[in-house]
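Hi team,

Below is the intake form for Aminotransferase class V-fold PLP-dependent enzyme from Streptomyces smyrnaeus. Please confirm the fields before the structure is written into the shared record.

FORM ID: S-0412
PROTEIN: Aminotransferase class V-fold PLP-dependent enzyme
ORGANISM: Streptomyces smyrnaeus
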Amino acid sequence: MSPTATFAPSCSSVSVDSRTDEVLPVLGRDVQVPLVTGGEAPYAALDYAASAPALQRVWDDVAAYAPYYGSVHRGAGHLSQLSTELFENSRRTVAEFLGCREGDQVVFTRATTDSLNLLAAALPEGTRVFVFETEHHASLLPWRAHDVTYLDAPRSPEAAVATLESALHAAPAGPKLVCVTGASNVTGEVWPVRALARAAHRHGARLVLDAAQLAPHRRVSLTELEADWVAFSGHKLYAPFGAGVLAGRADWLRAAEPYLAGGGASRRVSRTDDGTVEVEWQRSEARHEAGSPNVIGAYAIASACRALTEAGFDRLAAREEELLGRLRKGLADLPEVKVLSLFGEDADRVGVVSFVVEGWNSSHFAAALSAEYGIGVRDGLFCAHPLLRTLLGQRGDTPGECGAAGGTPALNAIRVSFGAGTPDEHVDRFVTAVRELVRDGARWTYRTEDGRCVPDSA
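The structure came back. Fields below:
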């Protein structure tokens, strides 16, 4: 009997929750938070672009597995064998979710940042890297040990392709890699990934897709997008923190020194006649998964992949589009609010919107949303400093003091983001709160503490 027959993942159906209009129920939807004005409110989690709440189904699957937890790959006991099979089945589930091709590898990592640093360490000597300044720091910074061409922010999808074509055409012969985001973590705009991949391949380059923001909202297929690699994080895909994926072509990964040296990455280690140590490394994904793997993290990602697939990305995207339309219309009715965009009003977007409010420091505005309305958003530069400087016209250099208005605008913005677990009420409450803050101002006083705006004590 297969060891996984001992327990099975959740088979609960995926349906809209009539109580909250959620497509996929998430943890934390009943959490009450205190308001400085008195009383409590249900927490409106609108910071999915940083970390999406875990799906209830993912949590249930992990809880069902927890009593059977065991070491992976090197144990003879029943629980070790079960955990090993679970880990490798999770790899196959993720490969199917990503539309991997025959021969592609799925490497489990800690997050998108770890995945892209792993690939950076595996690049052949002399590789030239091409990356737009619009990237999140996780996909902008790992390549600095290589010859990097930083491309200016394009103002349309067509301009992105043309800019890349021009840069690749001027590049000398040799291995080349293009790194591009699938959906911006600042504007939510979807990038022309397949067109960029085709442009890269016309010039003998490969492309890695940062799908951290795209994968939770749209189907991502290596085959359909024609990308060479894809990276994403579990904590943005409705799984807990601490696990991610790098999936794609095996040749550069097999040829590279292991990302980490240690047990699991090695097939054979022996002493040589001269007293040194000789190592034969694994050629499978284990080559870059040294140490005891995060089997629970891998299983949680696989559970989220199953849930999203069963819910249907067309259905998820349609509901998200409806929520996004309501949010954008609410903001458009306020002339004091400027929504940030590269590609313009008609751009394809996921549920991520960043904006600034005339007369407000963004940290102050975000603090008021939290303290007075129980709404959690993100403020700052969203680990995309060059892009924010471009979108804000290089305004300011520092976050500014809490409540600052007039003078030189501060370099920060407000980001609201949502997904499959967001109830309609959270978006409606956010639009109402923005309207009231713009019209009436904050009802409380705030101060700067350790660089953050916080409510003054009563």
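SUMMARY LINE: Residues 54 and 240 are 6 Å apart (CA to CA).

Thanks, M.
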